[in-house]
Amino acid sequence: SKKGKDLVFLPPPPPPRSGFDLEGFKRECVYDFKNMVKDAFRSDRRGGSLNDVFRPWW
Question: Structural domain boundaries of the chain?
Fold first, then answer.
């Protein structure tokens, strides 16, 4: 079949003019994650369970 010839490989879109702040984004994610873990352990001591915190992800 000639399907291969229909494929057009477009160049990846240019990054937005503002420039995506990857480092800042990573920092924010790590910060959020640390806070989440901190809260998880805090609730763990109160008798909560880590599973309750992470369950939405599973």
Answer: 21-58
Cβ neighbours, 10 Å, residue 40: 16
Residues with Cβ within 8 Å of 43's Cβ and at least 6 positions away in sequence, in order, are 49, 52, 53
Q: Report how far apart the first and last C-alpha atoms of the chain are (Å, whole number).
A: 42
CA angle (56, 24, 44) in 5-degree steps: 35
List pLDDT tens digits, range 7-58: 677 777 766 666 677 888 888 888 888 888 888 777 666 665 666 666 665 4
Q: How far apart are CA 40 and CA 42, in angstroms?
A: 5
* CA–CA dist 11, 19 (Å, integer): 18
